[in-house]
Structure formats: C-alpha cells, structure tokens
Inverse folding.
C-alpha cells in the first residue's frame, strides 16, 4: 500500500530530475512512510513511497523484469499473488522478490492488458516499457486505489493523489465548475473527473496506455446485473452457501500479509460478520477498532460492546466528540481533495490514527456489503416507490415507507409531508434515475447558494446528461433494484465511500483498509442473483442475513438499521472554531466568489438560531464550508502547505546525460 | 387582513436565505425547489406560533401550502373561523 507518481516525456527526451520526483513523492509520504524509490531514464521518472506489508525486506520498488526492460511502481495489494506467482514460475519466469508487485510485471509481459482479469485485489500501478517507450497504467475494478493524471508542456504526469501533480509548478490549479456542480448533485464528481480543470482521474476498472505519443483509456470491467437466462437458477440455500464460501475465501486471502491484520468493528451486521469469521476461523488473538460518538443519536456502542464480549476480541475505540470532529475538518479536506456534504469521513480519519498508533498497518472492514447485497434504505425505498408508481393516487401504498423510516413518519403531520417528499417523480418510473433523483434534486437545491459568477458559468450544464452518457447499454433493461445498485456503486461508492470516506482518510495515517465484500468474485456472483432474492419483501440483505443466521446473535441480526453518520451543526457551529468564522465570513465568501455572501450569512444565522436543524440546512452548511476550505487549500493558498521533498532509499538512474542532481538525494544508486 | 408580507419575509429568510428575485406570490414552492416537504413543517410551525392557530393534519396538503397566495388564503380562512368562535 503506497503512493506512486511519475513524469513521462511525450515527444522527445527532456531532463527529468530526481528533484522533480522528490517533490512529487514528498506529497505522498503519508501513503508510504517506510521507504521510497525511483527509476529514471531519459524519457521517464517514476517514484514510489512504500508502506511495507508483503515481503518487507525484499519488496522495494521500483521492481523490474528479468532483462530490466520493464519497470513498475505499484500501490495496492494483489491478494491472489501466491497462486499467480506459482503459475508464473512454472511457466519459466524468474522472480527476484516474494512481493505481489513483481507478479503484475511478469503477468503483463505475458498477457498485456488481459493481465488485469487475473488480478484479485485493490490496485493502481504504472508499468514502463523502456524498449517500446510505452507506459501502461491501471486501476482495480471498483476503484479502491486512486490514480490521477494530466498533460502539461509535452509531459504526462501521474500520481496517487492530485497534490503529487501540483508539486510540479507548471501544472495549473483551476477549479472545474462543472465538477462543483456534480458534487452539489451526486456528492462526488463523476468517474474520470476531478475538482480541477485538465486533471483527470483514471476511472475504476480502466487502464490507460501511451505508446508512440498515442493515448487511450479503456474500461476492462464494470458492475453488471444478469438478465433472463443469465440469472442464476440456484435455490436460496445454494446461493447462501456459495456466497459464504466466496466470502470466507475473500477474507482468507485478505489476511495475507507479513504484518498483523486487525478489523474495524462498528456493531453493524457487516463488520460484525467479518470480525466473527476472522476470529473464529483465522485469528484467535484479533484486535478490533471502533468509533464511539459523544452524541448518543450517532453512537452504536451498545452493539459494538455486545460483539466484543461475545467474540472476546481485544477492542480499542476512539471517542468522536463534536469538538474534535469540528477541529479536524480542514485536515480531512487536505486528504479528500474534494468538498464534502457530510462529516462522516472525519471520525474515520480519527480511527485510522488510533489504528496506526496501535502499531497496525492493515484492517478488514465491512464496506461494500450494503451495495452488493442490497442493504441500503434507498434500495427498499425504490422498490416501494415502484410499487406505489403503479397506482400513484393510492394512499395505502406509500404507507409501506413508514416501515423504512419510522423515525421520520413519527406522527400524522410528518407522514403527510414525507409522503409528498417521496411522491416526487412517482409518475416517472421509467426515468433511469428514478431511484436517486429525489436525493439528487434535494442536494442540488444547495446550488441556489452559488455566486453569480459560478451560476453563470453553469447555465447550460446538466450533470444528469453527463451521467446518462456513462450508463452501460444494458442499463435500460435492468429492473429497478439493479439500476439503483448500479448508480449507488458506480457513483457514490466508488467515488465517495471508497475515496473520501475510505482510502483517503485511512492512508492519511498510513493505514490500508481491505474490504472482503468487494471481492470481484462476490460482486459478480451476486450480480447474477435475481433481485427478489436480495431483498425479500422488504427484508434487506436477505442473503447476508441468512448467511450469518447461526454466526451472529439475534440482537445484531435483527437490529434496526443505523446509517453511519457524524453530527454536523453541533460540530461546526460550536463557537470555538476560528476557521469556521473565517471561511464563512463575508470577506472570504466574497474573495473566493463561489457562493452568495448574503445567503451564506442567512443560513448560518438560521442554523445558530434553531434548536433542531433540517437535513438540508446541515448538508448546505457542510457543502459551503468545505468548498471554501477546499478552494483556499488547493487553489488560493496551495503553497502555504509545507511539503518536505522525499529522500529516496532506492535510486535506479538510467539517464544517458550526467546525473549531477543525484548527490543531494541518493542513498543507494544502482546504475 | 393580509399576511403576504410576513409570509414572504419568512420564506425568503428561511428557505431562500435572502434571495428574493425568484419569489412571486404564485411561485410554486415545490416545483421551484424552494421548500421541500420537511420545510413545509418549518413553515407550519412558523404560522402556528405567529398566528396562534393549530394546523390540522388533514389540512396539511399541497393545496394549502404550495405558494404564498395559497398559504395566505388558508390563513385568512382559518383566522376568520377563529374570530367567529371567539
């Protein structure tokens, strides 16, 4: 688990210095604090900062093939590396390390881009073919590991985080207004986009190749849902038993590491299940980690402790106080590189620090179960609304929603108002975004806060049209649940949950998270299961619940669903945070010119005045504040961040020109 | 008695955060995304407190709360009944 970066000359050799790479790698030391290395020749420089997990002594990067014509920098883990390694050795490859990194290189030698189909893991890597002057880069199927790139002054630059690109002073940091619009609709940018003009994300499940100055990006994998004859014809018991087999194997290979592996334990079904499997089947001395909230409405301590005492694991927890959550927001934005609409990433940022301080580099988490197995309320809500859409005037049908949200349908008054909320779009069940449109439209109301400048620049822009272009051909044929699952996984999970709330806040404290539910074999198998078996009636995640029937206590199996969230108003407007006053001040709102200063003042006044704040107002506050922080951090005052250049442990210098700049940096050079 | 000005001020400050331009008396709160359903409850609580009335659950319908004019009409009707009772 690491950070990678690089610079490629596109048209002719041009000096790339160690110093250039050192500045880029310096922005990624949190991702790889253990060691660092570079390969450099007349065309390219690639760098890696390493968090050593597999083959601690021998896995230093960059790694090469037998004749040293191919070089790789790699961020991630290939969980099935042992099996691939054995195959490669049997077919005559000579490997000089025991790392997972090296197997990618040899597999690529044999199969080019088809090598990606064999890799089971989370990864982002770049392979340089020094003979053909070709670079090949790829990301894992669902986007657990990040990768960004840009073209600038006849060079191609890439990095695990966008800040690595900004280490090059020629790279412009301009806000992409369309991306801002996307964030204030979908909570994140769409695949391929970033918050900056001309800075691209390599989308999940894609590879990029540059050869003879020709550049191409191709998708090799996407979420899929079977239709008709392709649906699996197994019985419910057979589906459960095969899912269990896959899940146990998925956990087993994710425990492969030369360092101890812990577990996140929230007290929910998903993490409790993973923790039980690990404790009972693989590791009797298991350490677990959990978040407690000062604000009781958000706390799941009761369930966490029930699992801790049942499993007898060594459990550590952090207390996420409102004060601490509020204080950490600017630090978190430095890592997410995108504004937020909720504060949920902040307690996870605190948790990864605790794990790091406890001496752990790897944890398993329950992420992905809700998306794959159909656990979220939005899925059940979609099914109820589809049922309601058959008779839109029915007053009986929408009452099913009360089962989903008993706390917001608490009295007749709320019932009337919430029914009309969910009725929006009920006459358009064929709309591809039927499941998500209510939420997106609600978020999009924050756009009314945009300044005239931002508003004018978006006059003709509709983010839904952009999204429509990304939908696969089969999408229209899928049923309501499959469509909803696709949208949820493709946008929210890949680009928000696995990034702002996943990789970024974990790697900020050098922690690798591994997600057994997001093993592609499991995703592909469940994608072939008929929807009615995933959510039976209104029983969500029914396969997973059945799978855990004899493993988890009834209290965990039947507990009410508790979405993981963090308090907003009481964390941000507690009168102790100077930065909040600063960023929401009339002066700064006018300076950055993203939002209308009068409206910002009014919403802050309203939130300070009312006792209970609405969902929308809370969301608007986080969106506005974090967009202001984001703008200041990455656009207005980027250079205020002091970044120490990396001092490389391994330097492979193959430049034909003199390498005078090495003296200040080199520790070990290998010419 | 006309309540339009007070209502308008409340809606502009609470839901439009001072942005007046797009609010006419007949502007549909829901179609224009000015108020969502939870916002309706904020509006109801405001008129109950300000005018000392109780909005009945069966009165919580779009016809009464979807624009300034409609809320104004509703209030007039409601308060005239109240006056008669007194």
């Amino acid at each position: 688990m690491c950070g990678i970066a690089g610079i490629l000359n596109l048209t002719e050799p041009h000096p790339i210095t160690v110093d250039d790479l050192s500045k880029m790698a310096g922005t990624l030391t949190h991702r790889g604090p253990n060691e660092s290395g570079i390969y450099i020749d007349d065309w390219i420089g690639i760098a890696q900062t390493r968090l050593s997990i597999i083959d601690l002594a021998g896995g230093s990067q960059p790694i090469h093939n037998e004749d040293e014509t191919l070089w790789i920098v790699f961020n991630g883990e290939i969980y099935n590396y042992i099996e691939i390694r054995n195959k490669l050795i049997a077919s005559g490859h000579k490997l000089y390390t025991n790392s997972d990194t090296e197997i990618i290189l040899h597999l690529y030698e044999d199969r080019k881009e088809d090598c990606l189909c064999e890799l089971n893991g989370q990864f982002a890597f770049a392979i340089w073919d020094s003979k053909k002057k070709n670079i090949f880069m790829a990301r894992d199927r669902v986007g657990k590991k990040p990768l960004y790139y840009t073209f600038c002054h006849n060079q191609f630059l890439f990095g695990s985080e966008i800040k690595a690109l900004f280490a090059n002073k020629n790279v412009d940091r301009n806000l992409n207004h369309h991306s801002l619009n996307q964030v204030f609709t979908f909570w994140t940018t769409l695949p391929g986009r970033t918050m900056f003009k001309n800075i691209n994300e390599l989308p999940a499940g894609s590879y990029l190749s540059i050869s003879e100055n020709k550049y191409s990006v191709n998708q090799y994998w996407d979420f899929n849902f079977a239709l008709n004859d392709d649906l699996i014809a197994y019985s419910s018991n057979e589906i459960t038993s095969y899912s269990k087999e896959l899940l146990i194997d998925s956990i087993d290979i994710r425990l492969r590491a030369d360092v101890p592996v812990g577990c996140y334990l929230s007290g929910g079904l998903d993490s409790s299940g993973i923790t039980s499997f690990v404790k009972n089947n693989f590791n009797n001395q298991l350490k677990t980690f959990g978040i407690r909230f000062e604000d009781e409405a958000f706390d799941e301590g009761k369930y966490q402790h029930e699992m801790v005492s049942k499993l007898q694991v060594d459990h550590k927890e952090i207390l996420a106080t409102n004060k601490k959550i509020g204080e950490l927001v600017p630090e978190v934005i430095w890592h997410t590189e995108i504004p937020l609409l909720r504060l949920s990433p902040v307690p996870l940022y605190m948790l990864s620090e605790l794990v790091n301080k406890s001496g752990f580099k790897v944890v398993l988490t329950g992420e992905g179960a809700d998306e794959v197995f159909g656990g979220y309320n939005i899925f059940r809500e979609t099914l109820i609304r589809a049922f309601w859409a058959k008779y839109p005037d029915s007053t009986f049908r929408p009452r099913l929603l009360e089962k989903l949200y008993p706390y917001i349908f608490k009295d007749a008054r709320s019932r009337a108002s919430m029914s009309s909320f969910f009725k929006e779009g009920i006459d358009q069940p064929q709309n591809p975004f039927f499941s998500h449109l209510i939420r997106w439209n609600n978020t999009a109301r924050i756009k009314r806060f945009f300044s005239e400048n931002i508003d004018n620049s978006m006059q003709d822009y509709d983010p839904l049209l952009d999204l429509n272009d990304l939908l696969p051909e089969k999408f229209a044929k899928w049923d309501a649940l499959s469509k909803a699952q696709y949208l949820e996984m493709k946008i929210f999970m890949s680009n928000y949950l696995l990034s702002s709330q996943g990789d970024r806040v974990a790697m900020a404290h050098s922690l690798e998270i591994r997600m057994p539910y997001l093993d592609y074999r499991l995703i592909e198998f469940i994608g072939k299961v008929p929807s009615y078996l995933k959510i039976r009636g209104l029983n969500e995640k029914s396969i997973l619940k059945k799978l855990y029937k004899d493993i988890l206590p009834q209290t965990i199996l039947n507990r009410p669903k508790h979405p993981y969230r963090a308090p907003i108003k009481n964390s941000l407007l507690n009168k102790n945070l100077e930065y909040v006053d600063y960023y929401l001040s009339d002066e700064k709102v006018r300076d950055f010119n993203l939002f209308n200063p009068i409206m910002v003042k009014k919403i802050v006044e309203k939130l300070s005045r009312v006792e209970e704040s609405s969902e929308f107002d809370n969301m608007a506050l986080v969106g506005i504040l974090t967009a202001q922080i984001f703008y200041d951090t990455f656009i207005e005052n980027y250079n205020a961040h002091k970044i120490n250049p990396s001092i490389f442990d391994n330097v492979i210098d193959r430049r034909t020109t003199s390498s005078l700049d090495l003296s200040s940096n080199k520790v070990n050079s290998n010419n | 008695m006309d309540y339009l000005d007070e209502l308008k001020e409340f809606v502009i400050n609470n839901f439009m955060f001072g942005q007046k331009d797009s609010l006419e008396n007949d502007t549909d709160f829901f179609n224009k995304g000015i108020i969502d359903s939870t916002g309706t409850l904020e509006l109801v609580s405001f008129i109950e407190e300000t005018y000392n009335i109780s909005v009945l659950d069966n009165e919580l319908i779009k016809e009464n709360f979807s624009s300034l004019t409609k809320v104004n009409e509703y209030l007039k009707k409601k308060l005239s009944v109240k006056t008669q009772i007194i």
Notes: The domain at 228-372+485-557 of chain A is CATH 3.40.50.620 (Rossmann fold). The radius of gyration of chain A is 25 Å. Residues 380 and 537 of chain A are 9 Å apart (CA to CA).
